[in-house]
From TrEMBL:
Protein name according to UniProt: histidine kinase
EC identifiers of the protein: 2.7.13.3
Entry's transmembrane regions: 12-31
Top-level taxon of the source organism: Bacteria
Domain Histidine kinase positions: 207-424
Record keywords: ATP-binding, Kinase, Membrane, Nucleotide-binding, Transferase, Transmembrane, Transmembrane helix, Two-component regulatory system
Enzyme type, top EC level: transferase
Organism: Asprobacillus argus
GO molecular function, one term: kinase activity
């Protein structure tokens, strides 16, 4: 170009000028296309849009090569995201299936990061996005679960609709970027205790069977020996004299052991009734009529007022009638004992249905109530506060309700009375 200017070759100068201008424009367009492509890619990355696909089959070769690199990056990130999503779904499904309640929330603003269904079931609460919702509705529950720090697993009682539920709680704090989160784990140990209690009942029945057989075997053996000696004496009296003292001693032993066995069987024979259920549908009004005919006269004879009430005549239950009658009889007799020495004693038996279709039978009395010390043990087999009690009445009631997949709850205040609730 400088040579042409020195030689004043105008034609060459013009041609070279056009060539230089064209080259600059092409260079500009070349750089601009690449900047636009890179800018598009970074924009997609900014908004995490890795579904964007760049055309690899058209345009200049170098642009197609750049697009192929972008697509490879997108493809790799999509594969990583899919694997992470699959792992998240897998973990989420596992945590949803466990019967342990789990919730994670932001410590600063209270927003719930994740919560499984078991947690909502345990605290008997609908789904919520912020823990402040629980604070407004149930402050005591909020303080027990979210405000208290339990580095080690700790057993606590939480109040749910007049029911004290025992749970095992533990929590930990973890950091994600600049945010702090708290993970709370709840386990309903009441259900575990019920399961263990059911297993204990099975073991108890096995032990009882073993004890009965241990008593019957020597009785049978002794009776067989005495019968054989008597038969030998009958066949040949001279050769086989009958020792009356031995005979009397043997019969006395059989009598004493038989009486002990009868007492044992009479005390615990009701346990054998709870091994299976004969379910049938019955209206609650009919169930109450049977109990009223059976229990009414004896209760009223002690000057105790007793009444039965049903919220709807159509209310019915699918139960083993004989066993549930036994439960009601036990609870009414306990109510009779509790209120027979108070002024204007009364017993009320009420049946109703909750909004979630749970049928509830409540037995009220205005008796002396139950102390906290006794309350903790009333469902323990063979525990009794009565001088002549066997300690199997309430534990048997609970076992029968568990077989019906129900529950028995108790609420009592000393000096005011007691209410037992049967939930079906």
């Amino acid at each position: 170009m400088l040579y042409c200017i020195q030689q004043e070759k105008v034609t060459y100068i013009v041609l070279l000028s056009f060539a230089i201008l064209y080259s600059v424009i092409e260079l500009y367009n070349f750089i601009k296309r690449r900047f636009v492509a890179v800018d598009d890619f970074f924009e997609a990355v900014k908004y995490r849009d890795f579904s964007r696909w760049f055309p690899e089959d058209r345009g200049p070769k170098d642009i197609r090569f750049l697009y192929a690199g972008f697509n490879e990056v997108n493809r790799t990130i999509k594969e990583i995201n899919l694997k992470n999503e699959a792992q998240y779904v897998y973990l989420q499904k596992i945590l949803e299936m466990v019967d342990i309640g789990i919730v994670a929330y932001n410590l600063e603003n209270g927003d719930v990061l994740w919560m499984n269904q078991s947690f909502k079931d345990i605290i008997d609460f609908p789904s919520f996005k912020n823990i402040r919702f629980v604070e407004k509705r149930k402050p005591d529950l909020y303080n027990a679960i979210f405000e208290t720090y339990n580095k080690q697993p700790n057993s606590i009682s939480i109040a749910l609709q007049n029911e004290q539920l025992k749970v095992l709680i533990s929590d930990t704090i973890f950091q994600v970027n600049e945010d702090s989160f708290k993970l709370v784990v709840l386990q309903n140990i009441d259900s575990t205790l019920n399961k263990n209690e059911s297993e204990a009942w099975k073991k108890l029945l096995s032990v009882m069977t073993h004890e009965i057989m241990n008593s019957i075997a020597p009785i049978s053996s002794l009776a067989d020996t005495l019968q054989r000696n008597i038969q030998l004496h009958i066949d040949a009296a001279n050769d086989n004299p009958l020792e009356l003292e031995d005979l009397n001693s043997g019969i006395k032993t059989i009598k004493n052991r038989s009486q002990g066995l009868l007492k044992f069987a009479n005390t615990y024979r009701s346990l054998s009734k709870v091994t299976h259920l004969n379910l049938q549908k019955i209206k609650v009004t009919e169930l109450f009529q049977n109990i009223e005919l059976l229990m009414g006269p004896s209760i009223q004879a002690k000057n105790i007022d007793i009444s039965f009430s049903v919220s709807s005549k159509r209310l019915q239950l699918d139960i083993d009638v004989h066993l549930i009658e036994q439960v009601l009889i036990n609870l009414i007799l306990n109510a009779r004992d509790a209120c027979q020495h108070v002024k204007d004693p009364f017993i009320k038996v009420l049946a109703s249905q909750t909004q979630n279709h749970t049928t509830v039978i409540k037995i009220y009395d205005n008796g002396v109530g139950i102390s906290k010390e006794i309350m903790e043990n009333i469902f323990v087999p063979f525990f009794t506060s009565k001088a002549a009690g066997s300690g199997i009445g309430l534990s048997l009631c609970k076992q029968i309700m568990l077989l019906h997949k129900g529950r028995v709850l108790v609420h009592s205040k000393e000096g005011e009375g007691t209410v037992f609730s049967l939930l079906f």
